[in-house]
Amino acid sequence: MTDRLPGFNTLAIHAGAAPDAATGARATPIYQTASFVFDDVDHAASLFGLQAFGNIYSRITNPTNAVLEERIAALEGGTAAVAVASGHAAEFLTMNALLQPGDEFVAANKLYGGSINQFNHAYKNFGWNVVWADTDDPASFERAITPRTRAIFCESIANPGGVVTDIAALSAIAKRHNIPLVVDNTMATPYLIRPFEHGADIVVHSATKFLGGHGNSIGGLVVDGGTFTWAGDDRYPALSKPRPEYAGMVLSETFGNFAFAIAIRVLGLRDLGPALAPFNAFLILNGIETLPLRMQRHCDNALAIATHLSTHPAVAWVSYPGLESDRYHALARRYSPNGAGAVFTVGLKGGYDAGVKLVSNLQLFSHLANIGDTRSLVIHPASTTHRQLTDPQKITAGAGPEVVRLSIGLEDPADLIEDLDAALSA
Ligand SMILES: *Cc1c(COP(=O)(O)O)cnc(C)c1O
Questions:
Q1: Pick the CATH number of 8-287 from 2.40.40.20, 3.40.1390.30, 2.40.128.110, 3.40.640.10
Q2: Ligand 1 mean position, distance from CA 185 (Å)
Q3: Which CATH number fits domain 292-425: 3.90.1150.10, 2.40.128.110, 3.90.226.10, 2.60.40.10?
Q4: Where are the N6-(pyridoxal phosphate)lysine residues found in this chain (predicted)?
Q5: What is the pLDDT of residues 179-193, one digit of tens each?
Q6: Half-sphere exposure of residue 373, counting CA atoms within 13 Å on the CB side?
Q7: What ranges make up the beta strands (E) of 32-120?
Q8: Which residues line ligand 1 (CB under 6 A)?
């Protein structure tokens, strides 16, 4: 092999994995163990003091999870990653490392409904204050920044509608104010968009969706871009101040460009505990091996379905950035040239009742709250994922009463179109 970096398809299969040193097993084994035996007392002491890397207990590190962590770090182009129990845990541990009580972060208003709830309600318990900005208006993020702002948060392609974020514009604002940009890359995956190439500092994922890809396990990932300078910055004491539990170690000094990932592991996983089960890491790793093939087919199928629905008489509008007429088409071509993702919304002329009827009449599409499965999925956000939001919040989040969200799977598009046509005319 030369110095040339392997391509994306190769990394998706090989990054982080080697035949098992103990057995020669070619697939990554599931290290289904809670704990790991120390070599001797000195080894144990150095592990606990963070002087040596190694396994202590599967809440903190696990060899199966470590392969997943290295793989996503390679695919995103980050310095290190941490696998956690869910996408929400990834967001929570990220904010826990960045915010103190009384601090703020600016978040894009077009987000996964669960993230909106988490930010508006649960985070209040920690004294973390979300300030909302308009995904479509980067200047609104800058206006929302105050001396207490510790991060900007957005999704690359935003849930539930096909919204594409101008990541580079948000990164320019974040850099001007010297705060990190956190990008939830769940809907795009690194196959479509690699946020670090556009100036993001931290990437989070719900691995439950397209990375795992088969609708069979909940998981999350935090990826450190290694780009933000924490050292000497009093606003980020978790990274820049001596840690009493580690004999005064300063994480940013000891771990440099992967200090954020270390903070997620030793202050997040160790103390707060949302660890990923190694069995789920195994399933997500298997999913990632075919990510490039699956994402391309997801995108191709989604474009075919969106094109068909855009001329259907029962459909008022289709919000899919892959369509040339879409308002996000130019951003999609710039940020996501391989395709515009597989999740999009349609507005039905018949409003709320038509949305409820469509989800009830579809046969091949499953009516459920998930995205990024091999199977095609459908949901009516106003009556389900986004029902806790007020009506105006629903509309700004792209989840008004007439909106139905589709996550297009890997079936034959002709069968999906037949199912949709039958359900819409029923
Ligand atoms: C699903 C999802 C989450 C939450 O992830 P879980 O794995 O369900 O906890 C966060 N962000 C986005 C964009 C999602 O789609």
A1: 3.40.640.10
A2: 10
A3: 3.90.1150.10
A4: 209
A5: 999 999 999 999 999
A6: 17
A7: 80-84, 104-108
A8: 86-88, 112, 114-115, 155, 159, 184, 186-187, 206, 208-209, 218, 220, 371
